[in-house]
Amino acid sequence: MKRRPCLRLLCAGGAVLLLGGHSPYRQWDVYRKARLVVLVSTTDETSVRLAHTLVAIFATGLPDSRATLARARDTNDLVRLIASKQLEVALMREADAYAAFTGAAPFADNGRVAMRTLGALGEHLFVCLEEVPQNAAYLLVEALAERWRDIDPALVRQASGPRPSLALSVPLHAGALAF
């Protein structure tokens, strides 16, 4: 038996075992469960500005949330991250939220995304997965309502608060309704 091929095979097998065992996903899972990550699309500048304000509101009103901002490359990536349940909260245009909620184009490849509205911010909706606990949704809406005056009125089209109209394209979360 030749030693060199056996040694190569043994080294290759060891490398596969060592490198295959390293996965950043466990750390990502812990990170996103320990923080409130508000997801936005980089291509929507208004939502990025609004999300910075939301993160500041939650950092002050809910310091244990350890709120932070994450930017998806585009709205399609944002919907994929929400649909795959990698993140639970997002800020997106109402038309895009409705398309994702119904599984319509351009997000049809993701299927219907089970999400609910936490608040209406002008032409944007603050949405979450429907499985977000009711008490967590309540706390988010409460903090948003208490610090509403900190949001630039131009970004939310002069709305007087996060309370959405009855004609909402994505239904309200039970926690938002309770508030």
3D structure, described in words:
The structure is a single chain. It contains seven helices and five strands; from the N terminus they run H-H-E-H-E-H-E-H-E-E-H-H. It is an alpha/beta fold and about 180 residues long. The protein has a five-stranded mixed sheet. The protein is elongated and about 80 Å long. The model has no long low-confidence stretch (mean pLDDT about 85).
Short description:
With 179 residues, the chain is of the alpha/beta class.
Features:
179 residues; alpha/beta; 5-stranded mixed β-sheet; 45% helix; 16% strand; elongated
Q: Report the mean per-residue pLDDT as an integer.
A: 84
Indicate the radius of gyration in whole angstroms. Answer: 21 Å
Q: Reading side by side through the largest sheet, how are the strands ordered?
A: 2-1-3-5-4
Helix content: 40-55%
Tally the helices: what do you get? Answer: 7
Q: What is the 3D shape?
A: elongated
Query: How large is the share of residues in beta strands?
Result: 15-25%
Q: What is the number of beta strands?
A: 5
Low-confidence stretches: none
User: What is the string of SSEs from the N terminus onward?
Assistant: HHEHEHEHEEHH
Distance between the termini: 75 Å
**Major β-sheet annotation:** 5 strands, mixed
